[in-house]
Automatic annotation (TrEMBL):
Native source organism of the sequence: Angiostrongylus cantonensis
A single BP term in Gene Ontology: asparagine biosynthetic process
SUPFAM superfamilies named among the record's database cross-references: N-terminal nucleophile aminohydrolases (Ntn hydrolases)
CDD domains per record: AsnB
Keywords for the protein's UniProt record, in alphabetical order: ATP-binding, Nucleotide-binding
Domain named Glutamine amidotransferase type-2: residues: 2-183
Cellular component aspect of the GO annotation: cytosol
InterPro entries hit by this protein: Asn_Synthetase, AsnB_N, GATase_2_dom, Ntn_hydrolases_N
Protein name (record): Glutamine amidotransferase type-2 domain-containing protein
Molecular-function GO terms, alphabetical: asparagine synthase (glutamine-hydrolyzing) activity; ATP binding
């Protein structure tokens, strides 16, 4: 039951205040008391915040980096088939941990499209930044709910399950896109 908060700046030149993003993320610290992580893509202004409840590979923190500094993912949920993905689809990739979340960023690096989510068996919601690209997705059934909002400047906000910390600040809607049609 981690907490994720992400900001996507598509079509918006006005950058979101990094300190405000961290404060909004901290409002969900009860969802992930083990670690608080943060990433900001300096070129796009996209932000990933994560409040972690450690279940698999307790030493790992999020966001998790892929092969490049601008390849980052935050994730809530569980990828049931992560060991199989490591042995098959990702056997040539330089995975560094046993964490199920790590397979997400490496699958995106390999396939470079949202349809890579079709390979994931599990309950999940995630957001990732990849060299200026941004992807947010959840499991097809929506076990791990995700909400989104758009502010008056056109910035997208993504949040998991717990929307109460941002109610009143943004117009929040249920994120109903599946993996194959993710933003």
């Amino acid at each position: 039951m981690c907490g994720i908060f992400a900001i996507c700046h598509r079509g918006c030149d006005l950058r979101f205040d990094v300190l405000k993003a961290r404060e909004l993320s901290k409002r969900q610290a009860h969802r992930g008391p083990d670690f608080s992580g943060f990433y900001c893509d300096e070129s796009t202004g996209d932000i990933l915040c994560h409040e972690r409840l450690a279940i698999v590979d307790l030493s790992i923190t999020q966001p998790i980096m892929g092969t490049g500094a601008r390849h980052q993912v935050i994730h809530n949920g569980e990828i049931y088939n992560h060991e199989s993905l490591r042995k098959n689809e990702l056997k040539e990739m330089p995975l560094r941990t046993k964490c199920d979340s790590e397979v997400i960023i490496f699958l995106y690096e390999k396939f470079r499209e949202g349809s890579m989510c079709n390979l994931l068996d599990g309950v999940f919601a995630f957001a990732l930044c990849f060299d200026g690209e941004f992807l947010a997705a959840r499991d097809p059934i929506g076990v791990k709910q995700m909400y989104y909002g758009i502010d008056k400047h056109g910035r997208y906000f993504f949040r998991l399950s717990d929307v109460e910390p941002v109610v009143g600040e943004y117009d929040i809607k249920m994120f109903v896109l599946t993996c194959t049609s993710a933003i």
